[in-house]
Design brief:
Blueprint (H helix, E strand, L loop, with lengths): L16 E5 L5 E6 L6 E6 H4 L2 H16 L5 H27 L13 E5 L2 H6 L1 H13 L4 H35 L14
Helix pairs in contact: 2-3, 5-6
Amino acid sequence: MEQLFNSQLPSEGRPEIQLCIFPHLQEFLVIDSREEDPQVFLLNTDDVFGDEFYRAVESEFSEALRSSSQFPFSHLINLPIAIEESVRDIAMTFILHRLGVPVDEEDEIPSVVVYVVSGNALATHTGRVLDGLQGLIHSRYDNSETDKWELTISNLVERETAILQELNEQQVTQALKGDSPDYFTLWESRN
């Protein structure tokens, strides 16, 4: 499954599947170029991550937690990294399954690139991110379809940006109240 997160582009220059994930939204954009006529569509996480997904994650977590180790403390310290990798692999497997991609044979797994649209890049370069995402669509469709997807992408970027701003405001408020573990001051007196 390591190939699912290979950061190298295929020799042709374009990945077969591109996923645009907005971490604070339930929808994500899929650009599927496996066929001669590329497809762009919006998927909802509820359609991908159901009970079977959660059972697979729970099983993997249980197995990783209980795996015997000669160095138990080291194992526990490294557990979050192992869990993160497992969850990513399972999530990608379920996304590909939803797209009708057989993942049993590694030779048949298409090249996949995942764009995570969030954080500082989105906060400081929203226009550039939006242009880049729209550029992905422009290379696939004629003008009528492009307009539809540009509107969808703009909406997703706008919603992700609004949620990020709200979260940042909450963090600043918590910091000013002294309620945030992420912020601290050198001169603090609780008397």
